[in-house]
Amino acid sequence: MSSLTLSELKIAIVTSDIEAVRDLTSILDNALTHYSVVSQAEIKGQLDAFDFVFWNCDQSLFPLRESDLIDLLLPRIALVQNVGSHKLRWIETLGFHMVLTLPLCVDEVLVNMTCALRMHERESRLRSQREALQAKLDCRRFVILAQLDVMKTFSCSEQKAYELLRILAMDSHLEIEELCVRFLGARDKWVDTIKRRNMRRAG
């Protein structure tokens, strides 16, 4: 998303308000590559093909469901006739980046779209960082579990258990994290491998 500009966005407009669609397309006429008016029945199957979504939150024809938006991970702007504190809290909970009141103003639409894009980009970076951190934590957890198993099986220290796993990983041409995942998935096989190696060294 960070490489896209407004002129490259594929925009979905979830509304049955023809006037709102006309206003939006008029405002974005010079910047818009593609837009689509999306019906409720098409939401699940189509919105993930777009880069940006406007959603009219006032229409009963398009009831807002949390999974319809949050699962999409798209920059999104809410369209409303009026703004109240209750509605703002509701909109925030459902993950809208910005809110625009109808009728629309040219400058407000473009500024809010730019802000929504930047907010979404920041969220995407944070999400990637969290996923990378979680992956590291998962890898560390597998190493610890494998160490504990080796310590118990061979009655050795934590350091010795790690060394046995490290050597086993080197012999198997694996990273130690990958070795530990495989170790936990086929424990008896790898324990036998360690035993055979220890016997060869003892002999």
Concise overview:
By secondary structure, the chain is α/β, with parallel strands linked by helices. The protein contains eight helices and five strands. The chain has two domains: about 5-105, Response regulator (Rossmann fold, 3-Layer(aba) Sandwich), CATH 3.40.50; about 130-200, Orthogonal Bundle (Arc Repressor Mutant, subunit A).
Overview of the structural elements:
The chain has a five-stranded parallel β-sheet with strand order 2-1-3-4-5, with helices on one face. Helix 1 (18-27) links the parallel strand 1 and strand 2 (34-37). 58% of the residues lie in helices and 11% in strands. It is rod-shaped and about 85 Å long. With 203 residues, the protein is an alpha/beta fold. It has eight helices and five strands. It has helices at 18-27, 43-46, 66-70, 85-93, 106-154, 158-171, 176-185, 187-202; strands at residues 10-14, 34-37, 52-56, 76-80, 98-101. The protein has two domains: 6-104, Response regulator (Rossmann fold), CATH 3.40.50; 131-201, Orthogonal Bundle (Arc Repressor Mutant, subunit A), CATH 1.10.10. Helix 5 (106-154) crosses helix 7 and helix 6 crosses helix 7.
Keywords:
Rossmann fold, Arc Repressor Mutant, subunit A, single chain, 5-stranded parallel sheet, rod-shaped, 58% helix, 203 residues, 8 helices, 5 strands
